[in-house]
Amino acid sequence: MATKPMRIRASTKDGVTEVKALIAHEMETGQRKDANGAVIPAWFITELTASHNGKVVLASEFGTAISKNPYLAFKFKGGAAGDKVAITWKDNKGETRTDEAAIG
Amino acid sequence: MKKISTLAVLLLALPAAWAGSEDTYAEFKAMMDRSFKTNGIAAKHRMYQLDFQKSCSQEKQPPKAEMARIEAEQLKTIRYPADGKYFGDWKQGEKIATSGRGLTWTDKTPHDNGGGCYNCHQMSHHEVSYGTIGPSLLEYGKVRGSTDEIIKYTWGKIYNAKAFNACSNMPRNGDAEILTEQQMKHLMAFLFDPASPVNKK
Amino acid sequence: MVNPQKYIVLALAATLGSLPLGASASDKLLDGINEYREALADGNPSELVAAEGEELWKTPRGPKNASLEKCDLGLGAGVVKGASAQLPRFFKDTGKVQDLETRLMTCMETLQGLDPKAVVEAKWLKGEKEKMAALVAYVVTESNGQKIKVDTRHPEMKKMYELGKLAFYYRTGPMDFSCATCHGDQGKRIRMQELPDLRTQEGAAAGWGSWPAYRVSNGQFWTMQHRLNDCYRQQRTAEPIYGSDVTIALSVYLAATANGGKVVTPGIKR
């Protein structure tokens, strides 16, 4: 199954960059059942990292308590307009995806 | 006699809702007929109105005389418990009051419906997620006491609310076979039992 | 980071723990829910659906291998900006009043050669209905911030308004419900859900203006057709057919009543 693109926005003010990202993912817990009573297999992001010009600024572990299509917002020191911010996730099925955006 | 009263309903209902346009109403009926389909237990015939439903399908309530006529007719539908026992188990009553399930096209059977009471009424001291479409029933038994009269009235209200207010928003739980007699007895206990959280803090 | 599921649990727990029970507890609970909604608004996942829709709009599909870029939603071929704020409307080419979804089906049929039946018969959020939802998300995003401005001057619009109003008050089924049972009074709630009074301009604007919407509780994007369908499910009626006249008539009644109100689509709901 093809992964879907994230929406990433980043802006910088007074030396601090704020990143807002919407991540398209089912985040299925593995504890729900479908209409026929069959368990829907778990499918969720396990790790997520964000980098600024190739340097990691956020590393996190994700789990099943996080909603479908999660929204993530964080700030880091530094960053200038035009710099690249990239976000990469990995899920329990081994899928991975990276998207990037320029700081506006 | 029945036909005459139906006609009267029609005539009374017409002017308020569609400014004398019988054509519009015929068109409306045709539109409703072609716009709906049976899905599961939700059959197409559910779209065909009962006389009183039609009278109550306007911006304003029908005139007083018409309301009284409907109420008298609906009152006749009420069946009181044959064994004279009005009260079941309040704990089961609470579950029925809490459940809003049943009778939709995603429900499988028509036999284990909820009462959906909390959708519209405040009831117990501990449930804060209640609706406000109907009046608060908090401390129902404590406030009203449990005379034969109030017990009989309450049973009737649960069984067919239209007997007391022709265009009430409340479903006819007994008359429309939404709840069983036993389920209504449980609800009665939930409302009246001094140990029920409706009455006890 | 914001985690919606945890957030609501915490918000509810905090409110429940610190307050006496009764009416004020309910009010505080509602405040908590509204606060939660605001927290969500910043990261409305509809954006993800809209992005898919935009791509789908521009991608050639169907037997005619054409995109929807020449679709006329009422403001001229290919104009998407502001289009959904003026729908439903009467369309000369079809001779019908159409809402966004039935109009998109017309475009899919005429431009792409796709059979609208595939949309009508698909399950919600699956197959062609999933694609429809994405297209809708894209189109309605382009009307965000605009004013609802539905033109009711055409006789067919006037007729649909009248039929929609009749449908709004039509009580039927085993529970004797109509739309007005829940949406015909001011300041009411069903459980903790506040109910807009759809008879009034303010209430209709709040309802019509904030759907289609993303529902955080189930992670689903619902179109207006989906919203109306579920209203009827809860009324315990038979099922309205997708795109049927009753859904268009009700939409005209709601949109016309809401005229002048603000479009905040796609909305975000708990």
TrEMBL record, chain B:
Residues 88-195 form the Cytochrome c domain. Keywords: Heme, Iron, Metal-binding, Signal. InterPro entries: Cyt_c-like_dom, Cyt_c-like_dom_sf, Thiosulf_SoxX, Thiosulf_SoxX_II. Residues 1-19 form the signal peptide. The keyword Heme applies. One of its GO terms (molecular function) is heme binding. Transmembrane segments: none annotated. This is Sulfur oxidation c-type cytochrome SoxX.
From TrEMBL, chain C:
Keywords: Electron transport, Heme, Iron, Metal-binding, Periplasm, Signal, Transferase, Transport. Its EC number is 2.8.5.2. It catalyses: S-sulfanyl-L-cysteinyl-[SoxY protein] + thiosulfate + 2 Fe(III)-[cytochrome c] = S-(2-sulfodisulfanyl)-L-cysteinyl-[SoxY protein] + 2 Fe(II)-[cytochrome c] + 2 H(+); L-cysteinyl-[SoxY protein] + thiosulfate + 2 Fe(III)-[cytochrome c] = S-sulfosulfanyl-L-cysteinyl-[SoxY protein] + 2 Fe(II)-[cytochrome c] + 2 H(+). One of its GO terms (biological process) is sulfur oxidation. Substrate binds at R227. Binds 2 heme groups per subunit. Its main location: periplasm. Residues 1-25 form the signal peptide. Heme c 1 binds at C71, C107. Belongs to the SoxA family. Heme c 2 binds at C179, C182, H183, C231. It comes from the Bacteria. Its cofactor is heme. One of its GO terms (molecular function) is oxidoreductase activity, acting on a sulfur group of donors, cytochrome as acceptor. SUPFAM superfamilies: Cytochrome c. Residues 52-148, 166-263 form the Cytochrome c domain. Heterodimer of SoxA and SoxX. This is SoxAX cytochrome complex subunit A. The keyword Heme applies. It is found in: Periplasm.
